[in-house]
Design goal:
By secondary structure, the protein is mostly helical. About 45% of the residues lie in helices and about 10% in strands.
């Protein structure tokens, strides 16, 4: 909706995005053609929106000017807009759906805290943050190692894959006292569910609002 895709077509976009992320049991995604995030169903909307601007995110992306890494002021290319929109429409749909599911599941197991939220809705934003910490929708993030790197005295050779377990980091007792306890009053601070630094999730604010 924020992207300007008509409601009648949103379900098809959602199903297409889900299908691109789905694997068979024990299988893996096929990146033989390159790990490119794009959805040509969305591409058709981008081409149409370019000639028919509106008050939506897609139009903003098409018209936004910025200075790139070469010092050139320019707008995003079609492929850049397509990648951005595909990530927001796909990853946002999948992970936000999981977040909503975890909200229902976790609060069902903690009826006392659920009642607190009913009695005082002002507690909801912090409760969403605690659920993101307690049951992150994306429990792990993988990275390809481009060159030899050393971590904790061990050399990880180039070409390796590393898996960062977000769910474990969010329950690090050095940062969160009694980390396996769900507490909507907990001071969250910096959690890693949305990443950190240059890899911070583009849709974090939107996911929290929807949650």
């Amino acid at each position: 909706m924020l992207l300007g895709i008509p409601e009648a077509d949103q379900e098809a976009i959602r199903d297409s995005a889900d299908q691109s992320l789905r694997t068979a049991a024990g299988g893996q995604m096929d990146f033989k053609g390159g790990a490119v995030l794009s959805n040509e169903m969305i591409g058709d909307y981008i081409d149409w929106r370019k000639d028919n601007p509106s008050s939506d995110l897609m139009t903003d992306l098409l018209n936004a000017e910025f200075e790139d890494e070469n010092g050139v002021t320019r707008t995003l290319t079609r492929d850049e807009v397509l990648t951005y929109v595909t990530v927001v429409a796909g990853a946002g749909n999948e992970t936000t759906g999981r977040l909503i599911g975890w909200i229902g599941s976790v609060l069902a197991r903690h009826p006392g805290q659920r009642q607190e939220l009913v009695d005082d809705p002002a507690l909801i934003p912090n409760a969403v943050g605690e659920i993101l910490r307690f049951e992150p929708p994306g429990p792990a993030v993988a990275r390809y190692v481009a060159r030899d790197a050393e971590f904790h005295g061990q050399t990880v050779p180039a070409g390796s894959a590393m898996l960062f377990i977000i769910a474990a980091a969010n329950r690090d007792e050095r940062r969160y006292p009694d980390p396996d306890r769900f507490d909507i009053h907990r001071g969250i601070g910096q959690q890693l569910t949305f990443g950190i630094g240059a890899h911070y999730c583009l849709g974090a604010a939107l996911a929290i609002i929807i949650g």
